[in-house]
Amino acid sequence: MWGGEDYRANRRNEPRTGGNVSFAGVSDPTVKPDAVAAAHSAVAGSTERAVTRKEFLNLFASVFLPMFMAAVDQTLLATATPAIAASLGGLRDASWIAVGYLLASATIVPVYGRLGDQRGRRDMLLAALAVFTLGSLACGAAQSLPQLVAARVLQGLGGGGLMTLSQALIGELVPPRVRARYQGYFALVFTTSSIAGPVIGGLVVSHFSWRWLFLANLPLAAFAAWRLMRLPAGERHPAATAGADVAGHVLFAIGALSTLFWLTSGGHRFAWASPQSLALAATGAASLGALYFNERRQAAPFLPLDLLGMKTIALTAGLIAFFAACLFALIFFLPIYLQLGHRVSAQASGLLLLPVTAGMVTAAMISSRVLARTGKPYWIPVTGMSVSAAALLLLGLLPPSMPLIVVLGFFAGTGFGTVMPTSQMTMQTVAGRAKLGAVTAIAGLARSTGGAAGAALFGAVVFALIPETGPDALLQAASEGDMAAIVRAFHIAFLFAAAVAALAAFTASRIPHIELWPGVTQK
To answer: What is the per-residue pLDDT for 462?
Structure first.
């Protein structure tokens, strides 16, 4: 077994890319003594009892379904979006089906993280599952696009806790180094379900009604609840101070919603210089500014500033946000690109995302093994997001063809697959055992916010450039000129995604070097 001394840092000179971090607080002054003690206790506490592979898989089987339902539902409507727009209307605003879910998830994730730490992660996971199920029922009954978006918000309020609390529950019961060995399982769930969503959506829309995409969650949720009830309630870490940061949640929701609505609606709902546009921009800026000052005064803030004050955690959260923006933009809009620009069926467009799946799963498994063997996460996401940036750049520059889309999709997915296994492990290890829920919530918040921004802004770029006949008319028929204009619009948007991926690689390069545990030497 291993003790706290396994968390030793590299003591080499700090490079300009960020330097080395020491859990003793030598190299990174943002790593405070209490965080150091928490990180050490996380490992020391894990030495009480080893977790066998059989025990891990039994635990993983209990949280697998909630994780899968949360991840798959974030992308389930990608291939189904044109069919939903044909039924309910409003293709231009269809990205809000995903944005509404992701923003609601982003807003509620820190609540679940904090309540999971205080009241038990299993019980809070059951509560989140109940809210998610109610949202699924409301989505299946929606009769208009605004109703569907509202139902997706309710569903997101539950879905925000499913992934975060499942990962935190695993983190509570499995020692860090053993967790790294099995981190590929978590990446497998997230990446496979994220891409399985468009594939399942295409199959269901082609043969049944899109409403079954939501109604199918009801029996799955019942089975998941039964499995979770068989787990122990878990640890509780009562907070020294009580009280929820209601103002922080409200300010974040208003600021994020106003800013995204302004960026996605300017130029077609209202002119950029119109009073409505200026009012939205001012509301977003004022809300986010007030959020910052509010969080500094709160004893239990919506955004845990003590954790975000650590350079490693703050930069890793930024990396996750940029990565999620690229991932969700590609997953949500690549099927729409194929259906509108290349007249591919919903089922076929979903299947064409399988190369992205293959790349993500392959890279996630390899990254997890490399991290478990070396304990050094630094170069893994830097290399991965650089590969994704290059693939998206080529996707935007080269003439379109199906073989090219397949190959570049695989390489983009390969880069994406390197981020979550290393980022999740790094953040949880640095934060310590008592704050597993809070730091996992930061990762979930970054992923949801980044995904919402990526889907909204990618859609805004595309729909601002497509023919003036309107996106809804293009669902029925489009001339050769219209289809060429659609392809050009998406290629420009792919270049935008490539720039974001490059920014993610740069952010990853600024994360301090850190050794989570000693590497395994070859004999």
So the answer is: 81
CA dihedral (383, 389, 391, 392) in degrees, to 10, reads 160
pLDDT at 42 over 50: no
- The arithmetic mean of pLDDT across residues 361-386, rounded, is 82
Q: Which residues contact 93 (CB under 8 A, 6 or more apart)?
A: 145, 149
Cβ contact 136:214 at 8 Å: yes
Query: What is the residue range of 74's domain?
Result: 30-245+298-510
Residue 204 lies in a domain: yes
> Does the residue 280 lie in any domain?
no
Say if 290 falls within a structural domain. no
Show the beta-strand stretches assigned E in 109-238.
none
Going 303 to 306 to 312 to 313, the CA torsion angle's sign is negative
Residue 384, both tokens: 């991965």
Strand partners of residue 513: 20
Q: What type of residue is 175?
A: P
Distances (CA, A) of 226 to 62, 63, 66, 168, 223: 9, 11, 11, 19, 5
Counting Cα atoms < 13 Å in the Cβ hemisphere of 351 gives 9
- Taking only the tens place, the pLDDT of each residue in 466-475 is 755 455 555 5
Looking at the structure of the chain, the number of domains it has is 1
Rounded to 5 degrees, φ, ψ at 27 are: -90, -25
CB 455 within 8 A of CB 99: yes
Condensed to tens digits (0 to 9), the pLDDT of residues 251-277 reads 888 888 888 888 777 766 777 778 888
Half-sphere exposure of residue 321: CA atoms within 13 angstroms, side-chain side: 17
- Name residue 521's amino acid: T
Report which residue type is found at 307.
Answer: L
